[in-house]
Amino acid sequence: MTSPHDDDPQPTWTAPGSTTPPPPPTPPVPPAPLPQAPVPPSAPDLTKPAAPPAWGNQPAWGNQPGWGNQPAWQGQPGWGAPPPASWRPPALQPGIIPLRPLSLGEILDGAFRAIRANPRVMFGLSALVVTIAVVIQSVLTWYAYGLISDALTDVLVDEGDIFVTGEGTGSLAAPLSQLASAPITSLVTTILTGWLIVSVSRSVLGQKVSPGEVLRNKRIWLVLGFTILLAVVVGVVSALVVGAVWLLASMDAAGLAVLVALVGGIALVVVGILVAVRTLLVAPALMLEGKGFRPTIARAWRLTRGSFWRLLGIYVLVTILIGIVSQIIVTPAAILSALVFSDPDGQSFASIVVLGVANIVALTLTTTYLSSVVALLYVDVRMRREGLDVELARAAQQAG
């Protein structure tokens, strides 16, 4: 059994009278070295004031990120981080479109917005003008149908055709009578397009124009004159091609006549598309710029330079869309008039009325939308080429 004093040094017992020397003394244990204090860094120079940290590099406080390192919130860049290269501030939009170059979707949507922004002009005035035009066209169609049908009957009877009937002459007279009255609708549509362009241009700035202001615009006669001039030029060129083909055919040069007809037809189509696109912005330029007739036409021609294919693609797309809408409205009316109001002697007055109502609705919708698209194309081209968006933004801020 051990005790707590077993490790202590025990005394040595010796007999009395013994001469045993005492044990040598135990050498002292040197003390352990004291720990050395760390060498402090060089003390700052307190005679000079320390520079404050920059705002964008503030240290974290309370486990929060510094001021200049704020995290992005809902996809937006942080407070102190620079915006990405593709980011730009939103454009001013006082009206139906943002004041910057437009995309296809913004043009198509802006046309609907233009109709909703001023329905009194875009729908009310359009419906009134189209109704008057269609009524005049229907009366002329009905009157021309009777004249053409009688003339065809007389010609066929004089030639000894014993199979001539009222239904046969009616099927020939109906399309000819509609073709004879078609210029009325074309001219009225041109005038209406010019008027509606004024309303769309005001809607871009968030303003409205009254029907009276639209009707008092005298520059509509310039648009009408340009349309008639262009139609005359196209008619003369087409007549020259047809005359050349007829002359070659009368000279027994059938192969050459076919070649001229083929080449001339293709050339007419190509040149017609080129002229139609390059003069697409003439109507809005004449209505909105207030300059002379010839300088405005030349300027509108130059505006389309570099934008030909874009204008052509958008115009063809919109034409296809409004054509589909027009057929959706007109085709059921034509089937109804043929089944219910058919006349064995030809086209009845009731069928003309039914087709006229359908044409009023279709022309009102298609003309309104197409004119809105043309006006927005004019604004878009000028914003891309001339910085019109800056002028429009300044005008909107001054008006506001």
Automatic annotation (TrEMBL):
Top-level taxon in the UniProt lineage: Bacteria
Annotated spans, Disordered: 1-92
Transmembrane stretches, start-end: 121-145, 180-200, 221-248, 254-287, 308-329, 349-379
Keyword Translocase tagged: no
Pfam families, sorted: GPDPase_memb
UniProtKB keywords: Membrane, Transmembrane, Transmembrane helix
Biased composition (Low complexity): 64-76
Glycerophosphoryl diester phosphodiesterase membrane domain segment(s): 263-385
Biased composition (Pro residues): 19-43
PANTHER family reported for this sequence: EXPRESSED PROTEIN-RELATED, OS08G0107100 PROTEIN-RELATED
Protein name: Glycerophosphoryl diester phosphodiesterase membrane domain-containing protein
Species of origin: Cellulomonas edaphi
